[in-house]
Amino acid sequence: MGELISLGTAFCWTFTVLSFEAAGKKVGSLSVNFIRLLFGFVFISIFLYITRGYMIPIDASSHTWNWMLLSGVIGFVIGDYFLFQAFVDVGGRISLVIYSMVPPITAILGLLYFDEYLSVQNIIGMTITIAAIILVVIYKEEDHERHPHRMRGALFAMIGAVAQAVGLLFSKIGMGDYSAFAATQIRIIAAIVGFALIITMQRRWPNIKQAFFNKRALVFIIIGSIFGPFLGVSSSLLALQYTSLGIATTISQMNIIFIIPFSLILFKERVNAIEIIGSIVALIGVSLLFL
């Protein structure tokens, strides 16, 4: 069940990336980051009211609230902020290669905190999948731009990866068997406050206001919010209730592979042989995690 949910998470991330990439080109990544959280909060609030009878997780214990708020600050705010800054400093290709360290980091944290021992087959499957993803990322694009802050960008990408891993660990600690959607809402509340502080310090509120009037960008943000903060994040937490941290994060990173056919069909991008081979190898690696 956990592996299947993680696979669904990967599909959600695929649609999220496509939507937010389109929106980000029009209104900027910071505006997309903040507005997606607002829409995600609204969607989850409606879902919780329909399924649980109230819009805010008032039945969550102080233990859950504290850990999920901390998870939201570390995973959503710090993790996403440093990752997006790494995209600027060192480019998307190198950033995503470094970000592929999230699964092994979470696997180590799962072992240390939850005694989540992985079988030899699990380790081989994770290694094959991650190696294939890195291969696809390396050959996905030719980056001819010179980035003046390569060392800083690499450091920021690693900080983003560690923050995401720690955020997931804290989520698993705080959530237990509590509703994954309600737990996600707590994380989003923390993230909204965190990004609001960043926007205030950077004096970017006019950009946020302007983004709301860009109807085309807003449509993409709404679509991305449904598959991202609402379904994607919630399913990623739900998967943690059924499988280990390392396996869940490994499978969910398959969105890098799943996005290839969409790029081919929707954007008419060229797909090279390395990407095809990498995709097949990644699927083989994931299949080992299901066996």
Explain what the structure shows:
- This protein has about 290 residues and is mainly alpha-helical.
- The chain has one domain.
- Helices cover about 85% and strands about 0% of the residues.
- The chain is built from 13 helices and no strands.
- It is globular and about 45 Å long.
- The two termini are about 10 Å apart.
- The model has no long low-confidence stretch (mean pLDDT about 90).
Keywords:
291 residues; mainly alpha
TL;DR?
The chain has 291 residues and is mainly alpha-helical. The chain is built from 13 helices and no strands. Belongs to the EamA transporter family.
Tally of helical runs = 13
Helix fraction bin: over 70%
- Spatial gap, N to C terminus: 12 Å
Radius of gyration: 18 Å
- Biggest sheet: strands, sense, closure? none
Query: Low-confidence segments, ≥5 residues, pLDDT <50?
Result: none
Number of domain modules: 1
Q: What gross morphology would you assign?
A: globular
Series of secondary-structure elements, N-terminal to C-terminal: HHHHHHHHHHHHH
Mean pLDDT: 88
Structural class: mainly alpha
Number of DSSP-assigned strands: 0
Strand content: under 5%
Family: Belongs to the EamA transporter family.
Keywords: Membrane, Transmembrane, Transmembrane helix
Organism: Candidatus Xianfuyuplasma coldseepsis
Protein name: DMT family transporter
